[in-house]
What does this fold into?
Amino acid sequence: MVRYMAATSTSSKAFKSLIAAILSRPERKPPASAKALLARALAPDARTFLEAWASHMPPHISIGELWFDDRDPGGDVPQEDDYDMTEPMREDVLMFAHSPGGDLFALKPDGKGKLGAVVRIKHDDGWQEWEEAESLAAFVEKCFRAAKEKGEQTSLDAPAKVTGAAKKKRR
It folds into this structure.
């Protein structure tokens, strides 16, 4: 866990909590797709996220518009205006999550040529791309703040523990 947290030392509290949530899950043998995904040029926070995902059974994560589950990393991203999805899938981005409404979130090359900037690929708008954040850590923080402003519960909120005595009182 130390190597993951060292990589996130300059990241937001929300991003660190996301990584901690994934690392709290049981370890696993990395999925077959992990090797190819981790071989790509990734920004440090994107690498931290994908390494944590590859080595641990991921929980379903929901942070406002950001939803993440095991099928997301490396998922298909259609070409813009490919409504029938007959064109080859995009290779210039790396899908890592989705929205509750079916939009895709992908990493795109940042100013340093590493996959790190976050874009939203809107399915209702013909798979058009919209910039979201300059980094994955900034995007997680943005989603977390937006959810809190709306009063939404997120996967990063500590669940209230109910003790045996408290359970009896409720009855």
Summary: The beta strands are 61-63, 66-68, 94-98, 104-109, 115-122, 128-133. The first helix runs from residue 2 to 7.
